[in-house]
Design brief:
257 residues, Alkaline Phosphatase, subunit A, seven-stranded mixed sheet, two-stranded antiparallel ribbon, 34% helix, binds zinc ion
Length: 257
C-alpha cells in the first residue's frame, strides 16, 4: 500500500499505561499498535511543569517549558491564545505540510489548516458533550486524512478531563479509553508512520511527583486524579526514538523541514 500521509501524530491527553496495559484485551487498537510498533514510557524531566498546556507546547515547538513559560490556559484573568506563547511551532515553520486538529495547549484547542469548534468551547465536563466531541474530532480526522496531508496531528483531551473527576472508578474510566481506542482505530491505518503519545499520565491525588492542581476545582467539584510524570509513547515505522515530548517536534522537522 502506498501512503500519501507520511506521518500521523495522535495525541491522547492524560493517557496512562496504568489503564492501558492491564486492559489491552478491551483496547484492540492500542493492542495492535503495541504489537506492530514500539511502545515505551516517557518520564518527564524534573523541573518541567507536568501540565497540559506546557507539555503540548513543548511537543510541537521543541522548546522546554522552563523556556517558553506557558503553563496556564488562563493567566492573570486572561484566556491565553496562541499569540501569547513565545515559540515557533512546527506548523509555523512548514505551514503547508501540516494539518493539526485540536492541539490542547490553549482553550479551545488549536487547529492548523482545518476548522473545528468543540462543543462547550473545548472545556466541557458534560459527558454527552465530551462524547459528541470525540465523535466530531474523529469525523474531522477522517476527512483530513482523506485529503492526504503530508503530516497530520490529531489530539483528544477527553481522558484528562474524565480522569480528574473519576480516577479510581476503574470501569468508568476504562469506558472512555475504549471510546478513544475505537475512535483512533477509524483512521490510524491511513499513514505510513504513526506516533501515539500522551502529554503526561495519571494517578490519584497526592501520588504524583509534583502536585499540579488544588483538591477542589474552581466550581467546587472535588478532584480525584492528578497528572503523573510518566506519559505513554507508541511509534510505528519511525526511524528515530521519542524519549521526550520535544522529540516529536524534532522528528517532524527532520522528516519535513
Ligand atoms: Zn494533559
Amino acid at each position: 500500500m502506498i501512503f500519501v500521509t507520511k506521518l500521523l501524530v495522535i495525541g491522547v491527553d492524560g493517557a496512562t499505561w496504568k489503564v492501558i496495559k492491564p486492559n489491552l484485551d478491551s483496547l484492540p487498537v492500542f493492542k495492535k499498535l503495541c504489537g506492530e510498533g514500539k511502545s515505551g514510557t516517557i518520564v518527564l524531566p524534573e523541573g518541567e511543569a507536568v501540565i497540559s498546556p506546557a507539555i503540548w507546547t513543548t511537543m510541537f515547538s521543541g522548546v522546554p517549558g522552563s523556556k517558553h513559560g506557558h503553563e496556564k490556559y488562563v493567566k492573570d484573568g486572561k484566556l491565553q491564545s496562541r499569540d501569547d506563547i513565545p515559540v515557533e511551532f512546527c506548523w509555523d515553520k512548514i505551514p503547508d505540510k501540516i494539518v493539526a486538529l485540536q492541539v490542547p495547549f490553549v482553550i479551545p484547542p488549536f487547529n492548523w489548516n482545518c476548522d473545528y469548534m468543540p462543543p462547550g468551547f473545548g472545556a466541557s465536563k458534560d459527558e454527552a458533550e465530551l462524547r459528541q466531541d470525540v465523535e466530531g474530532i474523529t469525523a474531522k480526522a477522517k476527512e483530513i486524512l482523506a485529503s492526504s496531508p503530508e503530516c497530520a496531528i490529531v489530539c483528544y483531551n477527553h481522558l484528562d478531563r474524565v480522569q480528574h473527576f473519576h480516577w479510581g472508578e476503574d470501569e468508568y474510566v476504562l469506558e472512555w479509553y475504549k471510546l478513544v481506542d475505537s475512535a483512533i482505530g477509524e483512521f490510524v491505518d491511513k499513514a505510513e508512520k504513526v506516533i501515539v503519545i500522551s502529554d503526561h499520565g495519571f494517578c490519584g491525588v497526592g501520588e504524583a511527583r509534583d502536585k499540579t492542581l488544588p483538591d477542589v476545582a474552581a466550581d467546587g467539584q472535588r478532584l480525584k486524579g492528578d497528572h503523573h510524570e510518566e506519559a505513554i509513547i507508541i511509534t510505528k515505522g519511525l526511524d528515530c526514538e521519542i524519549k521526550q515530548p520535544g522529540d516529536v517536534y524534532r522528528a517532524i522537522m527532520e522528516m519535513f523541514g
